[in-house]
Amino acid sequence: MRVTVLSGAGISAESGVPTFRDSKNGLWSRFDPYQLSSIDGWLQNPERVWGWYLWRHHLLTQVEPNEGHRAIAAWQDHAEVCVITQNVDDLHERAGSRPVHHLHGSLFEFRCARCGLPYTGELPEIVEATTDMEPPRCRCGGLIRPDIVWFGEPLPEEPWQRAVEATEAADVMVVVGTSAIVYPAAGLPELALSRGISVVEVNPEQTPLSASATVSIREPASRALPGLLHRLTALLN
Ligand code: BV8
Ligand code: ZN
């Protein structure tokens, strides 16, 4: 069976990584993630954005994959699994999933905002939620930025192509931990439904996908995912 997974920040929530929506009480409650993860936010205040991402990068070195990530990795012993994630963390990879396609880039990759040269230099150690920090400079004088996709920026071609192919080849799509409001990623479950395959949503809350999903499981990822493949195999075979 070919299973395509689309994940969002909610699958990393139980690892202690705040999601976009919970940021009101999260580590960056004083920031607006939608403002900071936008090209305008970067152009207006690169120091603030750089400090926020360095803090998130530091946070990711302190957390582990959870039962949800590990369940999806374990599915690979019983099915052909392709993970598409909107997340910029590496928790799917650390749990053992392969391949993982990052639609919105990765917090572990950096590049020059001007010439695009990848940046592999030292990153300052951040030990507390900080605000402004001067981004390093590239040889060309450009500012170094995280290699992720901000609001208002196009998605990288290769991961998007892989995601569409995996959605078109899937026997079933599992959509976990996403508020399903950001496009074009949120269009993938719609593509799956238009192909007539089952789309299973795992989310403790209702989302705009819930009504059209084949089934919407109102549970956290770590509880719903471990037994899900077994249930899907029984249902679909
Ligand atoms: C583009 C990387 C075009 C950065 C991110 C008006 C109408 C429609 C569209 C638009 C519009 N205005 C602008 C747009 C386009 C815009 C968009 O869709 N905006 C939305 C807000 C309306 N999209 C873009 O700008 C995209 N680019 O369209 O380019 C273009 C083309 C050519 C040339 C130029 C431009 C780029 C979007 C990518 C932005 N980058 N992330 C970073 O991480 O810092 S988006 C970011 O937010 C995430 O990656 C994700 O995609 C999105 C939402 O986050 P989620 O992952 O869904 O998480 P969220 O916090 O929202 O929700 C968590 C969920 O988990 C909740 O449902 C919760 O219930 C659940 N949960 C909680 N705990 C658990 C759980 N689930 C399971 N288990 C648990 N334990
Ligand atoms: Zn440069």
TrEMBL record:
Where in the cell does this protein reside? Cytoplasm
Alphabetized CDD domains for the sequence? SIRT5_Af1_CobB
Gene Ontology MF terms: histone deacetylase activity, NAD-dependent; NAD+ binding; protein-malonyllysine demalonylase activity; protein-succinyllysine desuccinylase activity; zinc ion binding
| Catalytic reaction list | N(6)-acetyl-L-lysyl-[protein] + NAD(+) + H2O = 2''-O-acetyl-ADP-D-ribose + nicotinamide + L-lysyl-[protein]; N(6)-succinyl-L-lysyl-[protein] + NAD(+) + H2O = 2''-O-succinyl-ADP-D-ribose + nicotinamide + L-lysyl-[protein]
Instruction: Kindly list the positions annotated as binding substrate.
Output: 53, 56
**Primary subcellular site in the record, as a coarse category:** cytoplasm
What cofactor requirement does the entry state? Answer: Zn(2+)
Q: Where is the Deacetylase sirtuin-type domain?
A: 1-235
Cofactor: how bound? Binds 1 zinc ion per subunit.
E.C. number(s) listed in UniProt: 2.3.1.286
Q: Which InterPro entries match?
A: DHS-like_NAD/FAD-binding_dom, NAD-dep_sirtuin_deacylases, Sirtuin, Sirtuin_cat_small_dom_sf, Sirtuin_class_III, Ssirtuin_cat_dom
Please provide the record's keywords in A-Z order: Cytoplasm, Metal-binding, NAD, Transferase, Zinc
What's in the GO CC field? cytoplasm
Q: Which residues bind NAD(+)?
A: 86-89, 177-179, 203-205, 221
Question: What are the positions of the active site?
Answer: 104 (proton acceptor)
What Pfam families does the entry give? SIR2
- Residues noted as binding Zn(2+) in the record, renumbered to the chain: 112, 115, 138, 140
Q: What does this protein do?
A: NAD-dependent lysine deacetylase and desuccinylase that specifically removes acetyl and succinyl groups on target proteins. Modulates the activities of several proteins which are inactive in their acylated form.
What family is it from?
Belongs to the sirtuin family. Class III subfamily.
What does the entry note on its domains?
A: 2 residues (Tyr-53 and Arg-56) present in a large hydrophobic pocket are probably involved in substrate specificity. They are important for desuccinylation activity, but dispensable for deacetylation activity.
**Record-given protein name:** NAD-dependent protein deacylase
Which organism's genome codes for this protein?
Mycobacterium botniense
Q: What is the lineage of its organism?
A: Bacteria, Bacillati, Actinomycetota, Actinomycetes, Mycobacteriales
Write the gene name. cobB_1
